[in-house]
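Lab meeting tomorrow. Look over both lines:
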Amino acid sequence: MKIEPSIAERYPDLGDYARLYARRQGQVEFWEDYISPYLSITFAEADTLIWEFDVHGIHCNRLGSLHGGCVATLIDVCSSFATLVHEGKHRWDMIGVSTDLGISYMRGVPSGKKIRLECKVQRQGKSLSYIYTTVYDDENHVCYTGSHTKYTIKTKSNM
């Protein structure tokens, strides 16, 4: 997993998580280890986090397109990190756990292509965060969307 240095500087918790995931590159012990070496955080601002992902054969189904389970994992991981760029009253210092994840599959993406995941925090409170993700191919077509609800027990700011 890669992150632009200026983004890691602006969002230290995000940088810490990206470095934690990057340390595992080359080791496959957890499910997300199949995707993290191919992910890059390219943009961050309040409530918005943008990623790029290089699709390889290991991420595809037998038809040669990005596997639905891989899409779900990408949206899960990428939108979870978006909780760390919320700049409102309730800031989190951990990505929490999923309570709900809904995915729409509209257009397949073949191996060898790059996708862009745009994650937007819709609302974040003391313990729940709602994130919406749109996934685009390299021709800017919407391929997948996801809504994700996260829960955390630990927050940084006032309750």
User: Anything to note?
Assistant: The chain is about 20% helix and 35% strand.
